[in-house]
Amino acid sequence: MAEAHQAVAFQFTITPEGIDLHLSYQALSQIYLSGLRSWKKRISRIKNRIIKGVYPASPSSWLFVVIAILATMYMQSDPSMGLIAKIREHLPLSLSLSAQGQTVLSVLLFSTLLWLSLILALRFCLKLLLSYHRWMFELHGRISTKTKVWATLVRLLSSRKPLLYSYQTSLPHLPVPSIKDTLERYLESVKPLLDVDGFQRMTRLAAEFEKSLGNRLQKYLKLKALWATNYVSDWWEEYVYLRSRSPIMVNSNYYGMDFLYVTPTSTQAARAGNTITALFLYRRKVNREELNPSRIPGTVIPLCAAQCERMFNTTRTPGEETDVLQHWQDSEFVAVYHRGRYFRLWVYRAGRLLSPREIQYQIQRILDDPSPPSPGEDKLGALTAGNRTPWAQMRKQFFSSGVNKRSLDCIEKAAFFVTLDDQEEGMMGENPSVNLDRYAKSLLHGKCYDRWFDKSFSVVVYKNGKNGLNAEHSWADAPIVAHLWEVSFTLATDAFHLGYTADGNCKGEIEHSLPPPQRLSWDIPLQVQMQVSESLAVAQALADDVDCHVFPFREFGKGRIKKMKLSPDSFVQLALQLAYYRDRGTFCLTYEASMTRLFREGRTETVRSSSNESCAFVLALEAGEDREHCHKLLRKAAEKHQNLYRLAMTGSGIDRHLFCLYVVSKYLGVESPFLKEVLSEPWRLSTSQTPVQQMELFDLVNHPEFISLGGGFGPVADDGYGVSYIIMGEEMINFHVSCNFRSMNCLPVFMKLHRSFLIH
Known about the structure:
The protein is an alpha+beta fold. It has 24 helices and 20 strands.
């Protein structure tokens, strides 16, 4: 109870002599310093709100406008064309101010209005410029004069150093494509996947939809697009993620891995100390908006940063019909799980972030704690891994008051969740390939109860110092988490900026008076324990059925692909098409995730990678046609894929538009056979590239051993594959493939994928 006594600032007792008051100056000092930190954060938020509110101008430009107007007035010139005099006439303080004072006040008001008008004009111009996307479709070396002028203007308006969210109000809204264009692109995408009769049937259904219900639904969708910031994102978050009642473990959550070859320290507590510190340093940069806005590589074109807002202090809370994302402004602690016990670990003391060495010291206290779990505590996390409705019912009935609510609040309000795993993972031992696969499965689902899958992300630190991450999907997409986790920040900060001592410990001093981590208390009744067992059974069946295979492809990378003048992403997608055809003898509907963050609050769009051109290339290659003809078809298929990707990025995709039309039809209570069939088509090949972003913290060329493995996700269809890949440097591409054991096995498709990569 030492920490409880330290938390009390004063105590008093009533005695016959009167009231005996005892003040704890240490506790009062802690309260003062913590409050000081809160006020500093408030002031910083106000300052940032002003700076980004006037972007692309600067606050100091107001003073320039005022001085310029005063100077022209002094020279007996009126730039306001009589407006300053009008303002002076209507001043309510005209009786109490001198004539000179009235003039100065009128000039200040006019200058402020002029300054605000100029800001709105600049922001409108920037929004118009960022709405131009034809530059993406122009060939390298053949850039039009229009695009060159556009690029110059964008650079001029973006010349001031922006904050993380400076561009948000200047980003254009996602446009609603025309029904005709979407249906034409849809029919083109399914033509190679259907026989003649099937394609004619879908063509007839699409034509009937366009003539009848489609235009009616489109009008409602355009109305929403005028009113909402983004006509897709809120429905996508709610209906695709939050309303799903099936387990989010494997089905929705995804994972990120550690370095492939390097483990900075083999001391578990030390690795946890640096990792937690790096994550809080990242959170500080997000809160202060010190991160540079993400941009399209090689350009000054900004991407939407809205998803960063809910990165920390966020939890998905279960509901009987729909879940809810809860976000708190701040949190000074993390929740830690170790050997069936839950702890609250404060990482701030007196407004100061603990040093990595102090966090290591606190983590070691948890590792050394011999206390056993309380009844029902050890597998409580299985509730977050099972079906959502039973978890919602248990939470409402048994976790809404008392000790259970207090402990659950500590987990849900934590900055993030940390698991100290007893296993050793990584590419090690006599069979490193098998161990990598086990490592992937561990991060994807663990033991089904030793992760808190509802948290925005959970960090896993293994016994041998390896680490990883499991992320909940509804609040953000993988590129946001990748920027947080991989070589862009956390891993790089851990290894290169925080570092370790020669004996593998964190750097820094220890304040030994730190109160120990707080063990969370629970009162788990038998009914909850029974539901925990049921949820664990559901989750365990799901985990046992998923197969993962991690495949570092080292024979060549994007360097050789670019020498062929092909897009590396297009090349990988065509290799996947070839591998799937060799595995299954047919083509399938293929999902590749593309981002729509060129638009405000944009998330993802689908690139339908299986096209007429890709199928023609695969069939020609498998038929043994001559090399020159196959190369020609390869280039044509790659160009088609690039065009599809660009269309998806610029708001002319297929699937989000059809999805929103389907949602509107459900609101109106009308049925569409066309939309129903489109939305029920299975994605048997679901793919995603993890981007390598803003490599500012270290040079991968000089440190090739610090290559990231990337991350992966579970299969989308029961009889399909989930494929994630990250193109690292010039000579490596890392793959993560998943599938269900009951339908297939990952290894055969990996062998075919490896051979498919030799098509060059």
